[in-house]
Amino acid sequence: MPVLTKDNDNKFLYLSAYEHFKQMILDGALSPGQRLPSLRKAAQELDLSRTTLESAYLLLAADGYILARPNSGYYVTDLGRHLPPENGEILAPAPVLYDFSTSGADPDSFRLDLWSRYMKHALRQDERMRTYGDAQGEADLRQALTAYLRRHRNIYCSPEQIVVGASTQSLLQLVCPLLKPRQTVSFPTEGFSQGRAVFSDFGFSLSTRDKNCDIIYVSPAQMTKWGELMPPARRMELVSHARQTGRLVIEDDYGNEFIYLPKPAPSLFGLDQGEHVLYLGSFSRLLLPSIRISFMILPSFIRKCYHKKANLYNQTASKAEQIALAQFITDGQFEAQLRRQRRIYGQKRTSLLEAVQKVFPSCKYTIGPAGTVLALTLSSSMEPKAFVSHAQKNGIRLQAMAGKKNELTVLLSCQSLSSEDFVPGLELLRKIHGEQSA
Q1: Do 54 and 117 fall into the same domain?
Q2: Residues 6+ apart with CB under 8 A from 354
Q3: Could you tell me if 207 and 332 lie in one domain?
Q4: Is 340 buried (19+), middle (13-18) or exposed (0-12) by CB count in 10 A?
Q5: Do residues 201 and 277 share a domain?
Q6: What is the DSSP letter of 264?
Q7: Mean pLDDT, 10 residues at a time, over the chain (438 residues)?
Q8: What Cα–Cα distance (Å) separates residue 27 from each residue in 22, 24, 81?
Q9: Which helix (H) or strand (E) holds 363?
Q10: What pTM was computed for the model?
């Protein structure tokens, strides 16, 4: 927030006050509809006269930044949202017509009415809701997770090995201090931005595809953005390497539930029996992005360190959502949810592939056996960020990454967009690509 500075010429003080409040509006410190301080209060806080403040307010109103309401005061308008700041960037984003990003979920993929009933049941547990949540996660949820993991991932663990948190990022922040004296960590690609940010914040040295690092972070079901899997031979090799060298493998099992193969791939944790592998799982994609529950399974040598400090940590996941999810899993609703999502996203993957083949018949594309993303290769000299920004301004939200020289890889997800909009969205993308290539 800008600081109001005074000069020796008092007749211009009202302009300083004007700029002070104008900048607060542009920065978002004062939001549309918010009431400004009364003239008396603002004069006291800024050590100015009421006359000076009134002149500043009248000028703000004349320029459209605030609106005077009789017998009520001055209120901020939404003008600031529609003005370009000094750097020229547009504050108000263009409306999204076609969302090919992975940030949303298909409206038919989750029964919100059913989940609401489980949440209401959790909130009716008055005595339980009056206490803080377990720092390690609610006991009934951890128990339900052990049964689910045993059935679907061939992972045998106890509730004491599981730690629940709001996100994989929050769990990594919890575990990083327990990993010393390890100092180096390797990621499959630089695309793992959230995990890399956490380790960097804790002072770890980051590398890419380096098996000699102290910690090897992998996502076996998402080796690439478009769902390439880690082969079984590579999984066995990695587990053997960890056993021989004492290195720690962090298995981020993101996307495993969306592997479209007859036989599920084995988890690293299960292959290793949890001695050198830390397992990460999340429910945000499997339920709704707004339901923030993740978990990790700790290998024995980290678990001992964690339990010494567990009571010093706060639980970051909602207690009510944990209670609801525990019963949701126990009643078999979670497995029904997975079947529903696999069916919906499997059909949409096929529809997206057919739409790409129709609209971009001469372009290369790649789609792996896992996930909801197709990678489309376009001829372009634009940087990925510039292309994404250009597409956004024209109504398309997507991700992109650098390819070979004069090529761009556009990532298209079938999650948020309806199948009927695939072809119109891709036709707009073709038009945008043609304009920037001309």
Answers
A1: no
A2: none
A3: yes
A4: middle
A5: yes
A6: P
A7: 46 78 86 86 84 83 79 78 50 76 87 95 94 95 97 94 95 93 93 90 95 96 91 95 97 90 85 95 88 95 92 92 97 95 95 97 94 94 91 92 91 95 97 78
A8: 9, 5, 9
A9: none
A10: 0.78
